[in-house]
Amino acid sequence: MSTITNKTIIKNPLETSPKSLLSPNHHACAGCGQIIAARIVADTLGPNTIIANATGCLEVTTTVYPESSWGMPWIHSLFENAPAVASGIRAALDYKEKNITPLIPSCQCGSSAPLIPQAQPSSSSRIKVVAQGGDGSTFDIGFGLLSGMWTRNENIIYICYDNEGYMNTGAQASAATPWAANTTTTPASSGHKISAIGSHLFKKNMIALALAHGLKYVAQTTVSYPSDVIAKIKKAQTINGPSYIQILVPCVPGWKIKPNQTIELGKLAVQTGLYPIIEYANGVLTNSLKINSPKTPVEEYLKQQGRFKHLFKNKTGEKQLKFIQQIADENIKKYNL
Ligand SMILES: Cc1ncc(C[n+]2csc(CCOP(=O)(O)OP(=O)(O)O)c2C)c(N)n1
Ligand code: SF4
Ligand SMILES: [Mg+2]
């Protein structure tokens, strides 16, 4: 429907933009990095895809009963078992392709004629199976089943939307939460103890863990580089085997930012070296996005986020900022950014 105001016709954007496979009638926060990334991912994957989605903000905000924003086959079961559900779907499709070819009568003489299976082009092999979830389901609670899926070398794309915490339940720390971030389970105060700095656990290196499983394709990117997200999804679609793509997706309440900061922060995460854009094929680093010179200091990224504001208040924070700069510098060296 279009609205007429003062003789100017304002077109409904839904009428003019091409239809997306993840429609905008979801309940995600304005500026949610995850929903922007998921939409890019869905539209790149296309309708010939079946998605198994873990519990988390993406699932909760897109499937408020009795509605769904998904215009493609999509299933949710539990927080921890999206990889196992995807494995079952893959197995069913593979079985169907191998064993259930259409039965055509061998002659036209009557119903008693033996039926001979006749090879027909199957659509099953063209259907891509995708499992996806947040960092909580990927790094922590679903990791056992993810590891099993990878160990079985199944032809499934796994996508992790990394917002660095359990955001759907109020921003608790996950194994993806970065050093010194203030979360509800790693609270920061202005004290001087180690516990006062926010999280004092290192972010789990999921890329290394994916590589340790021998995955054919492993990549990391951020929602702020949409053409890179598209390229990586397209690449994963060409792989006959398991692949892992991790996308940094800023979260408005969890990072204590404004909705219009999402894209800028995803870029700064890359440009500081804290969240490099990298790609591995058959275990070898084949691509990384070079950062601009001179490098952006980590303060530029951290100071814009409420979850790090305690680091800008005293000497303890100053020390932590230096330490975080070291983490970024190590990445810049390691990946030759
Ligand atoms: C077994 C189980 N434990 C805990 C929960 C509660 N829970 C639902 S969503 C969620 C947070 C999900 O975090 P993440 O996977 O990072 O996704 P996000 O919401 O951040 O996108 C939690 C803890 C649950 N649904 N099931
Ligand atoms: S809480 Fe964060 S991840 Fe969840 S919908 Fe809002 S912005 Fe997105
Ligand atoms: Mg999360």
The beta-strand count equals 12
Radius of gyration: 23 Å
Terminal Cα span: 48 Å
- Regions with little confidence, pLDDT below 50 for 5+ residues: 1-8, 112-121
Strand proportion: 15-25%
Helical amount: 25-40%
Give the strand order of the largest sheet, numbering strands 1, 2, ... along the chain: 4-3-7-8-10-9-11-12
What is the H/E string?
A: EEHHEHEHEEEHHEHEHEHHEEHH
Which cofactors or ions or other ligands sit in this model? thiamine diphosphate, iron/sulfur cluster, magnesium ion
The CATH homologous superfamily is named Thiamin diphosphate (ThDP)-binding fold, Pyr/PP domains
List the helices and strands and how they pair.
Elements: E1 3-5, E2 8-10, H1 13-16, H2 33-45, E3 49-53, H3 57-62, E4 74-76, H4 82-99, E5 103-105, E6 115-117, E7 128-134, H5 135-141, H6 143-151, E8 156-162, H7 206-212, E9 217-222, H8 226-237, E10 243-248, H9 252-255, H10 262-271, E11 278-281, E12 284-288, H11 298-302, H12 315-334
Parallel strand pairs: 3-4, 3-7, 7-8, 8-10, 9-10
Antiparallel strand pairs: 1-2, 5-6, 9-11, 11-12
Helix pairs in contact: 2-8, 4-6
Bound molecules: thiamine diphosphate, iron/sulfur cluster and magnesium ion (MG).
Iron/sulfur cluster binds at residues 28-29, 32, 34, 57, 61, 163, 167-168, 251-254.
